[in-house]
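Budget justification, computational time. The allocation requested in the original proposal was used primarily to generate structure tokens for proteins on the priority list. As evidence of use, we reproduce two of the resulting records. The first is shown immediately below.
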Amino acid sequence: TFCPITKTFTLTALTTPIEIQFYSACCTLPSGDILIVGGGSSSATIQFSPWTTNKLSYRRNMIACRKEHACVYMNGYVYAISGYDNKNKCMADVRRTIPRTTNGGP
């Protein structure tokens, strides 16, 4: 986590029972939270809030497992782009979701 006031970085270990550390994708939300999507054989979506709770929050899972994909936030939506499923089959698609905010969402 980077603090713009002190201009220092703090290392935060993410410990979860799911496989997010391998082949997952992430994007930054306007709130400063980080959305971690899929990875390995996981369909999980996890939101990391370094500026408030400094904890992980589990969000609604994706429809299918996805790894080695891209993830981007644009115009109020998060897009998971391409990648592979848990059987290493190429997923030539784009999935769109609305990220959770303080006003609700998945």
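The second record produced under the same allocation is shown here.
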Amino acid sequence: SAHVATRRFAEVIALLRAGALDAARTRWLPLLPLLEALFAEPNPAPVKALLAHQSLLQPTLRAPMTACSPSHAAHLVRILEGLRAEGVCPTRNSTIAHGMPSAGTLS
């Protein structure tokens, strides 16, 4: 989701608008495991779980929605850490440094 890898999604859109399909595809493909995992359980639970892991919000949901399973949340964290190691997603500190609100400002 663009909530997790915002900068990368914006790059892909810009490349598509410029007609740079090969470059857009190259930037898009590393995101596929993350996208598949984010939608493997009912939305928005996985997205909120991953954003909560980054201390950007609380993983609370209103009924009848259910929380992301702990095993799937751990899987999402492993994927995110792998993308960070590859430079695909920024670290939490660089995300906040680029103007993302802290957990205290989101609910």
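A brief technical remark on that second record: Residues 49 and 102 are 15 Å apart (CA to CA).
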